[in-house]
Amino acid sequence: MGAFGDGASRKNKRSAAKKSGEEFGDDFKGWINVNLSDEEKETFGKWFEGAAFWENFVFFASDGCSLSVKPNTRDGGFLAVAVHRRVASPNYGLGVSARARTPDVALGRLIFVLTILNREESWEAVQPMADPDRW
Predict the structure, then answer these.
(1) Cα 70 to Cα 56: distance, rounded to the nearest angstrom
(2) Per-residue pLDDT tens for 101-119?
């Protein structure tokens, strides 16, 4: 598949399923802000309608990402958030968010962004962590 069709394939060489004895934690290192290109935004609709969304949803949940969707009271619509909780992951403690008018699209956008970040083993190799002291 294409660059967005199967973002989990690189990591599928090793099992994403939780292994016995694996540690999960609650530390938070910071946010990763991803600015999508026009091409990536155009690709989202077709990607979201296909099987890749569900395959990647299962992959990231199984890999240790805590996923949530809630009403976005600040701006309206919905906010989807992922924080990696598997301690052995290079992405442990990193968070990503996405917004949309509906909860399904917010979750879809979040999984799409995670798929883009997952092009490398470390999300920070794709996009550095945001400066926590920005104004």
Answers:
(1) 20
(2) 999 999 999 999 999 999 9
Residues 6+ away with beta carbon under 8 Å from 72: 78, 79, 99, 106
First CA to last CA across the chain, in angstroms? 40
Token code pair at residue 108: 């879809």
Q: Which residues of 21-53 are buried (b: 16+ CB within 10 A; e: fewer)?
A: eeeeeeeeeebbebeeeeebeebbeebbeeebb
- Give the model confidence (pLDDT) of 63-95 as tens digits: 999 999 999 988 899 999 999 999 999 999 999
Q: Which of 117, 129, 124 shows the shortest CA–CA distance to 8? A: 117
**Domains in the chain: ranges and CATH:** 23-126 (3.30.160)
Burial class (CB in 10 A: 0-12, 13-18, 19+), 125: exposed
